[in-house]
């Protein structure tokens, strides 16, 4: 398979090749995450059942709940390794934060110039919330 990828590289642009490489890395990371989040809890569960540990039902419940995080971890790995996804997620998360900071900065500092002396007075206004 590696040889065929090298042969295809001559027909692809550099951007397409880079995107394919990031997708390949993402698939490998997803495979590792999927394997570890399912095989480790299942293996420990088998040992807990076979050797009859105290509180085995609680341990098995917690381990199976941890195994269910595979989907979440898989999505996070995709968003981390694929650059267009990462940029889109950061834009979605940072736009509301930037707007909030901009409003906060506009409401927190007020600069006043004193007419007689020409000095600058600075006062801060605290944002009030109605509870």
Automatic annotation (TrEMBL):
| Superkingdom assignment | Eukaryota
Q: Which keywords belong to this entry?
A: Membrane, Transmembrane, Transmembrane helix
The portions of this protein that span the membrane are 23-49, 55-76
Listed InterPro entries: 7TM_GPCR_serpentine_rcpt_Srh
Record protein name field: Uncharacterized protein
